[in-house]
Structure formats: C-alpha cells, structure tokens
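Table S2 (text version). Query chain:
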Amino acid sequence: MHDEKTERFDPEVLRQLTSGDQEIMTVVVSAFLSQYPEHLENLRNACLSGNSSQVLFAAHSLKGMATQLGAANLRKIAAGIEKLAKEGASPSTLLSLTDALAQEFAELSKLLARLH
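Corresponding structure-token output:
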C-alpha cells in the first residue's frame, strides 16, 4: 500500500534516474519545476482552442515528464487527459482535468520544495 507521498512522488524513481547523484537530482527537480508550468499552459491553451492534436501532444509530454520524475498522480491525470482526448472528449472535460493536473502539480511542487 502506497502512502500519499509515494503516490505523489516516489524518490526512488528519481534516485534511479540520477544514479543517486544529489547534484543531478537537484538539477532534474529544478528543470521539472521550471518547465512543467509552460507545458501545462500549452495543454490549457490547446483545450481552450479545441485543438485535439495539440492536447494529445501536450498531455503526452506532461505524462512523460511525470513518469521520469516518479510523480504517479501527475502521470495518471495526464494519461487520463491523453486517453480522453483520443476518444474525442469535449474541451470542457479536458479543461477540467487540466485544472486537476495543475492542482496536483501545485501540491507536488510544495512537496519537492520541502525535500531540498
């Protein structure tokens, strides 16, 4: 059974990605925290414009970033957006999930800030 911290962020995934190098971990986390909001904004704009191919691309990118970091909740939400976009979900549904993704990112950011 995973606790909330593990579902939100599994530090072991990051350790494996960086071979346990603390300096590289810091760089990876900083890059994630600085780049994710831009990708999130791209997703939001794609949802607002109803551009399903851009929604798919942005959601897939966000899912990949979350997977590499070990952010399971973030990955699940992004994967859900990607799946629903493929199924032709309405822009309002996708936008609602994008808001959930933004909220999860905000919570993850707080957690990652406490780890430094």
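Notes on Table S2: The first helix runs from residue 4 to 8. The helical segments are 4-8, 11-18, 22-49, 52-69, 72-86, 91-115.
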